[in-house]
Write a structure and sequence with these properties.
The strands form 3 sheets. An 8-stranded mixed sheet has the order 5-4-6-7-1-12-13-16, with helices on both faces. The longest helix has 14 residues. Helix content is about 25%, strand content about 30%. It has about 240 residues and is an alpha/beta fold. It is globular and about 50 Å long.
Length: about 240
Amino acid sequence: MADGPTIVATSGGIRRSERGDPELAPLVLHAVALSGVDGRAPRLCHLGTAGGDQLWWNALFTAAGRRAGVDIDHLNLFPMPSVDDVEGFLLDHDVVWVGGGSVANLLAVWRLHGLDRIFERVWQAGVVLGGVSAGSICWHVGGTTDSFGPELRAVTDGLALVPYSNGVHYDSEARRRPRFQGLVADGTLPDGFATDDGVGLVYRGTALVEAVTEVAGRGAYRVVREGERAVEERLEPRVLPGAW
C-alpha cells in the first residue's frame, strides 16, 4: 500500500512495443512504484468499464503486465460484476488502473454498483488509483468529454476525490484546450489541471504534488478562473525513467 491516499491521473500509460504489442509505459510503472511493493510481484487491477469491458483488451493488458513483471487482474462489470466482493477484491491489489472510453457511462455504471463509495474507501486505504483519459477525469469533479457525441461537453459528476477539474489529451485534440478553458471561465467546471498526451498528475490526498511525463517535452497545466476568463499556467513535468 502507498503511505497515503494517492492518485495518478494521466493522458498516457500504454504504448506499442517494438513488436507492436501494447506494453506498460512509464506512467503505469510509476503508479506501481508509488504503491511501495517490495519483495513480490505488484498486483494491479484493471477496469475497462469505460470501454465496455472488452475481453480482447483485457487479454492484451494481462500479457503486457506479464512482460513487465506485474500481476494483472480485471474487474469487469459487464454483464455482471466478475467477483462477489468488489471492495475486498480491489483492496487486495496495490494499484487500480482505469482505462479510457466513455467517462459518462463509466460513472453511471460505477454508481449503479456502488463503486463511487467503494473507491473512496479503497483510496483512503492506500491502494494507488490511476488511469488514462476517462480513467483520469473520473477521480476529479469533472472535465471535458466526447461521451455524448463528437462535440465536447462537460461532465460534472465525477467522484471528486480531488476537488479539481481535469482536462485530458490537451495537445492532441484541437478542441480540448479551448473547451476546457471555456468551461472553467464560465464556472461550469472548477479550477483544475490538464495534461498533454504522455503526462500524468500525481496527487497525495487532495494536493497535487507533481506532474510526470513519459514523453519528453510534453506539459501539464494549471487552469484557473480569473474574473470572466481562464488563465493557464504551464507546469513542467518531471521526466520518468524509460521516457521517450
